[in-house]
C-alpha cells in the first residue's frame, strides 16, 4: 500500500529562480530554512513551470492542465470556475484546503477550491479597475526599466504583505494544533518578485559577495531575445544598477527564507512536522541579469526552472536529489495522491508520488512550457508572441511562432549557449521534438483564440471600470509602504 501524508503545508512563492538557493548550489545566498528543508527531504533539480508568467503558471498548477487547454495565458486571463483544481480533488477526499496569502486568480472566483482564505490579494480581482499603487516604487514590479533604475535598499509593500502572511500562517498553525484535526494549508508568498528592493543589511552583504551576472560573448542571441532586450530598454544596464538589482533580488530570497524559517519552526514546535508533507515551490524564475536579461518571460532555464522540495519524515528519503524532468502540473497531481485524493481526470500532469516512495521507477522525462501573449499589455511592446518549449531528457527545444527555433543539449551545454537546431547530426532529433512540441499546440489557432478572448476581456474591463464591482479577499496595500533609500 502506498504511503500517505496526514497533513499538507504547501509554501508557494513568486519568481524564485531555482539556482538562487544554497541547496541548489548557490554559494553566495543565505537560505538556511530551504536548505534544512531540502536536507530533510527530496529536491528536484529539473523542475519547470508550465508558463514563465504568474497567472498562467499558477492557474495551470491549480488544474494540472497546460495553459492552452484552459485559455489562460496572460496576467489578465481568468480561470473558469467549472474546471476542477487540486483543491477540489482534496476537498472531495475529505480535506479542508485553506489558503493564507497569494493566489493571483483573476475574476470573480478567488478561491478555486479553497474552503477558507486569509490575507488575500494586494491587486484587484478585475481588469479595468485601478491597479494597486506602489507609490515611490511605481512601475518597478513590471518588466520595465524603472525596476532597474529604482532598486536597492528600502522596502516594498510586497515585503510588508508577506510579513502579514507569515503572521497569519503562524496563527493558523496554532489554531490547527489546538483543533487536532488533519489540515491542508497553502501559504502564498509574494517574494522574491520585483521591485528589486530589500533591506539595507542584505544589499550591503550581497554587494560584497555576489559576482556580476554572466553575459558570455558566445551566448546564443536569438532574434526575439534581442528584440525583447531592446524593447524593454535593458540592452545596456549600467553596472551599478545591475549590481544593486541583483543584490536586492538575492536579499529578497533571503528575506523570504527567514519567513519560511519562522513557519517551519512553528510547525516543529507544535509537533505537527512528523505527519506533514511540506512542499516548497515557486511559479517561475527570474533572470536577474544573467545573459543580459531580467525578470521572466523567456524559455531559458533561468526563467522557466523552479525550485521544488518535498519533505515527509519517515516516508520520503532525506537529503535526496532527483534528476527526473517534472513540472508544477505534476506537483499538483502528486499532492493529491500524497493525501489520498483521486487524480484530476483529463489533466496533463502526472503524479510522481510513486517515484518518491519507491513504489515505481517509471517516468517519462518530458515536460512542456509555453509563453503566449497578445499585443495589448504595454510591456509586450505591441507584439504578440506564441512560444513553446519541450524538455525531454537532456534535450530542450524552444519553438517561436515568428522566429527560428533553438535546440540545446543540456548535458553538454547547461547554459543553453550552443544552438543545435541546424546541426545535421541532430536533424532527426530536432524533427521529432518539433513534432512533439506542435502536437495539439497550434500558434495560429492560439493567436486567433487570444484575439477572441481580448474582445471578451475588453467588455469585462469596460464593465468593471463603469460598475466598479467589489474585489473580494483583499489585503489593504498602502502606497506609503513603499520606500527607496538613498544609495550609499
Automatic annotation (TrEMBL):
It comes from the Bacteria. Residues 6-340 form the Sulfatase N-terminal domain. GO terms for cellular component: cytoplasm. Transmembrane segments: none annotated. Keywords: Hydrolase, Metal-binding, Transferase. GO terms for molecular function: metal ion binding; sulfuric ester hydrolase activity; transferase activity. The keyword Nucleotide-binding does not apply. InterPro entries: Alkaline_phosphatase_core_sf, Sulfatase_N. This is Sulfatase-like hydrolase/transferase. It comes from Halovulum marinum. The lineage of its organism: Bacteria, Pseudomonadati, Pseudomonadota, Alphaproteobacteria, Rhodobacterales.
Amino acid at each position: 500500500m502506498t504511503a500517505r501524508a496526514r497533513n499538507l503545508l504547501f509554501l508557494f512563492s513568486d519568481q524564485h529562480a531555482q539556482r538562487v538557493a544554497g541547496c541548489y548550489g548557490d554559494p553566495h545566498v543565505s537560505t538556511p530554512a530551504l536548505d534544512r528543508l531540502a536536507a530533510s527531504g527530496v529536491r528536484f533539480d529539473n523542475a519547470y513551470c508550465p508558463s514563465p508568467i504568474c497567472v498562467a503558471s499558477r492557474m495551470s498548477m491549480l488544474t494540472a492542465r497546460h495553459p492552452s487547454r484552459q485559455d489562460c495565458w496572460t496576467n489578465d486571463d481568468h480561470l473558469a470556475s467549472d474546471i476542477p483544481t487540486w483543491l477540489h480533488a482534496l476537498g472531495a477526499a475529505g480535506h479542508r484546503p485553506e489558503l493564507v496569502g497569494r493566489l493571483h486568480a483573476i475574476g470573480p472566483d478567488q478561491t478555486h477550491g479553497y474552503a477558507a482564505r486569509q490575507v488575500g490579494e494586494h491587486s484587484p480581482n478585475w481588469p479595468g479597475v485601478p491597479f494597486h499603487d506602489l507609490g515611490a516604487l511605481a512601475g518597478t514590479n513590471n518588466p520595465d526599466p524603472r525596476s532597474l533604475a529604482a532598486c536597492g535598499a528600502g522596502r516594498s509593500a510586497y515585503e510588508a504583505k508577506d510579513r502579514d502572511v507569515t503572521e497569519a500562517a503562524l496563527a493558523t498553525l496554532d489554531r490547527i494544533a489546538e483543533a487536532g484535526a488533519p489540515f491542508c494549508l497553502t501559504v502564498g508568498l509574494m517574494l522574491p518578485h520585483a521591485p528589486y528592493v530589500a533591506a539595507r543589511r542584505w544589499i550591503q552583504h550581497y554587494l560584497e559577495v555576489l559576482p556580476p551576472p554572466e553575459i558570455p560573448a558566445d551566448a546564443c542571441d536569438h532574434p526575439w531575445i534581442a528584440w525583447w532586450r531592446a524593447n524593454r530598454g535593458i540592452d545596456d544596464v549600467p553596472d551599478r544598477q545591475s549590481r544593486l538589482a541583483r543584490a536586492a533580488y538575492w536579499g529578497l530570497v533571503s528575506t523570504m527564507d527567514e519567513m519560511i524559517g519562522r513557519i517551519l519552526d512553528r510547525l516543529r514546535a507544535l509537533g505537527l512536522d512528523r505527519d506533514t508533507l511540506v512542499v516548497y515551490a515557486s511559479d517561475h524564475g527570474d533572470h536577474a541579469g544573467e545573459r543580459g536579461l531580467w525578470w521572466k518571460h523567456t524559455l531559458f532555464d533561468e526563467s522557466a526552472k523552479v525550485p521544488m522540495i518535498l519533505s515527509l519524515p519517515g516516508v520520503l528519503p532525506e537529503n535526496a536529489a532527483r534528476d527526473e524532468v517534472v513540472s508544477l502540473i505534476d506537483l499538483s497531481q502528486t499532492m493529491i495522491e500524497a493525501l489520498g485524493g483521486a487524480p484530476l481526470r483529463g489533466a496533463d500532469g502526472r503524479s510522481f508520488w510513486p517515484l518518491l516512495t519507491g513504489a515505481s521507477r517509471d517516468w517519462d522525462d518530458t515536460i512542456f512550457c509555453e509563453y503566449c501573449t497578445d499585443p495589448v499589455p504595454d510591456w509586450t511592446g505591441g507584439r504578440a508572441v506564441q512560444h513553446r518549449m519541450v524538455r525531454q531528457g537532456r534535450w530542450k527545444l524552444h519553438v517561436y511562432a515568428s522566429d527560428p527555433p533553438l535546440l540545446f543539449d543540456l548535458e553538454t551545454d547547461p547554459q543553453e549557449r550552443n544552438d543545435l537546431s541546424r546541426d545535421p547530426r541532430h536533424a532527426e532529433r530536432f524533427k521529432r521534438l518539433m513534432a512533439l512540441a506542435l502536437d495539439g499546440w497550434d500558434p495560429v489557432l492560439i493567436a486567433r483564440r487570444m484575439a477572441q478572448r481580448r474582445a471578451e476581456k475588453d467588455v469585462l474591463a469596460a464593465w468593471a471600470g463603469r460598475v466598479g464591482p467589489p474585489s473580494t479577499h483583499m489585503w489593504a496595500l498602502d502606497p506609503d509602504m513603499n520606500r527607496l533609500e538613498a544609495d550609499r
